[in-house]
Amino acid sequence: MYEAKDSSSCLVELDEEPPHEINKEALDIALEISLLLKASVVDEIHVMRKIVIDGSNVSGFQRTMLISTNGYINTSKGIVKIPTIYLEEEAAKKIEENDYVEYSLDRLGVPLVEIDTDSSIKDSEHAKEVASIIGMILRSTGKVKRGIGSIRQDVNLSILGKGRIEIKGFQDLRYMPKVIDNEILRLEKLKEIKSEVRRANPDGSTSFLRPLPGAARLYPETDIDAIRITKERLAIIKLPELIVEKALEIEKNYDISPEQSVNIIKEGYSNLFLDVAPKIKKEYSGFLAETILSVPKELRRKYNIEYKFNHKLFIEVFEAFNLDKISKNSIFEIFLNDAKGKKINLSDYKLVDDKELVKEIEKIVKEKKDLGFNAIIGLVMSKYKGKVDGRKAAKIIGKMLK
User: How far apart are alpha carbons 343 and 335 in whole angstroms?
Assistant: First the structure.
């Protein structure tokens, strides 16, 4: 049973009329990805029909086309070749499965790029690295969907003398090595096994999906003409700066770690970082990067708030911090209050005057003669709640106690 809406599906998805021309924007993106992966684009693209029997395509086939061949990426364990890159259409989404299968047609026909690697991947951790590098190259274009479920990795695994296993459904790269290693252990215990498709489970196991399809299931699509790809068309494609290259540039110019620089770009914070970093002291760059990466995560973890930085407020906060108008300790509270919808006035977080701070510390030391250093600094920080610099307060207390 198929569910369709006129706002997202047309007669092509219903298999009631022939397909239209290939989406030119999708084709250009596939060509751009091919060039980034150092692949050779074919001279002429032919659309093929790939037989699908599970009902996820109303017509019983999926349209696919070879875009390029012989690409490669560089990894920590050598070159990994990319034999083929395809542009194809998405299948229907399975909604429910009982006595029959119910599909939604709202994403049928959405363009997908399929990137195949060869068997030069060395081990499970290498597989994770390869998937991560390809993902970064795709994100560098700024033209692919991001997030869990939008990029799907399948792993083909084989042991000498046994069938090939295709593991589908990797959405989070963190558990890819565990699934691969567990599948190797499972295969080693079996005397013989048929080639099959299995699903990757979050607990590191796999479960049977279906037999592995044969290779001879492609035939030409007769309703779409071949598409010529000329050198002139390829020449006008402007290639973006790769995430890895941009990360190296940021790491080189500012005092932050390689991991911070990569994550700033992967998470889409490069513009925010670069709008602030040149305006503050270089030694604050690490704290700037840490704030950008940690604050949204902490707000999500502690307060269940999905927070997106207010660009203008973020710049104002770090300009004030750079001029010693607010302390490092107050910055998280500022963004927390902004996330809660409170009006932010930075003067409310202004650092306490040095004279007032010394006077208050003298008073506490005089009145609480039995207290040690940690107890005194605790009282000071509690009273001013982020409006004093902890290092400055500690220095003053240390001198007085001596």
Answer: 11
Q: Look-up: residue for tokens 């992967």? A: 266
User: What is the full DSSP assignment across 374-398?
Assistant: HHHHHHHHHHHTTSS-HHHHHHHHH
pLDDT at 213 over 80: no
Task: Quote the longest CA-to-CA distance of the chain.
Answer: 92
Question: 111-116 and 101-104 as β-strands: parallel, antiparallel, unpaired?
Answer: unpaired
Q: What secondary structure does DSSP assign to 21-71, as a single string?
A: ---HHHHHHHHHHHHHTTPEEPSEE-EEEEE--SSSSTTSEEEEEEEEEEE
Contact between 65 and 46 (Cβ < 8 Å): yes
Prediction pTM value: 0.71
Q: What does the pLDDT read at residue 150?
A: 66
227 φ, ψ (degrees, to nearest 5): -115, 120
pLDDT band at 132 (very low <50, low <70, confident <90, very high): confident
Instruction: List Cβ neighbours of 351 (8 Å cut-off, separation of 6 or more).
Output: 324, 325, 326, 327, 387, 388, 389
Identity of residue 300: R
Six token digits for residue 356: 């007032």
Place of tokens 């989406």: 23
The pLDDT of residue 120 is 92
Residue ranges of domains in the chain: 2-235, 243-349, 354-401
Asked if 251 contacts 286 with a C-beta cutoff of 8 angstroms, the reply is no
Alpha helices in 257-310 (DSSP H): 258-266, 270-276, 285-303
Closest residue by Cα to residue 388 from 326, 334, 322, 321: 326
C-beta atoms surrounding 278 within 10 Å: 11
Residue type, 167: I
Residue type at 314 in one-letter notation: F
Cα distance between residue 210 and residue 207, in whole Å:
10
Amino acid (1-letter code) at residue 316: E
For residue 111, the model assigns a pLDDT of 93
Angle at 287 between CA 281 and CA 293, to 5 degrees: 135
* 8 A C-beta contact, residue 300 and residue 306: yes
> Where do runs of H (alpha helix) occur along 63-140?
124-140
Torsion (CA) 282, 284, 286, 288 in degrees, nearest 10: -120
pLDDT at 389 over 90: no
Quote the CA–CA distance of 173 and 177 in Å, as a whole number.
Answer: 8
Helix or strand (DSSP H, E) at 400: helix 390-401
Work out whether strand 101-104 and strand 40-41 pair parallel, antiparallel, or are unpaired. Answer: unpaired
